[in-house]
What we know:
alpha+beta; Immunoglobulin-like; 4-stranded antiparallel sheet; 7 helices; 28% strand
Amino acid sequence: MRVRLLTWILVLIIISVSAHAFGIGYPYLKNDTLELYPGQNHLFKVEVQNKNGEDVTAEVSVNSTIASLVGKPRIDVPQNSFDKYFYINITAPRDAKINQTYEINYVVTPVGREEGQIPLAVRYARGFTVKIIPKPEGIEEEEPQPKKQKKIPVWIYMPIIIIIIIIILVFIWKKSSQMTGRITKPRKKQPPIHIPMKKASKPRKTEKKAVPKAEHPFKFREGKTINTLSELHTALKHMSQQEFSHYVTPNKNDFATWTAHSLKNQELANKMFKTASQQEIISLIKNELFE
Length: 291
């Protein structure tokens, strides 16, 4: 009887130790509520830790109408690792009403690598609420203003311009003297050289992928609308940095949100969410259109 009791105690200790070897961490939310205004985008970060134990793979799933997982649903978590994480992309609907709430639920399940991908005893089911609040006043004023460049005094660069003009005139004078000497000297007739003509190579055509039309057009603040990814690519190429900063900041990306919800291209949207550079977003869209 004592042997059986000691055996069960030992098994419980082993299960308890293995259960606490894996864990997750996430930002603190007051009353488990995240406040967003209509149209705001937010990336919710969840850390995954494996304090000791063996290497595991974490399976992640997100259940919500306004949120989706960024990246792959499986994360490799080696033993003694504390720097693994994943993001949940949350976008408050533009037509959401004030004080309206949405539930965000996600599950993290560790799976052993050496047991044929068998789920372990630990399973983390977490969730929080997104509450819609009024858009703060003056948020449009947070756009970065271009810095005014200082004008260089004329007396600084005028001598440099004069020196450059003198050098150009001397170069032209030497060239004209050489050309005059060549004209006065008789030239020997040389037999004509036959140069074989090469066949002109046909230009390589870049095949453009079919461009799907969005369910809802993207409307710019001046009233112009676009309906396809190709039109977005053209608009970004001709857009100023000041205008671009109105739609993309470190806390939101309206173009990525529209790409995910209206064009249904979540993979491209995830790539666009990771950058706030206008040129990088243009390159991502170009690769998607012409790959």
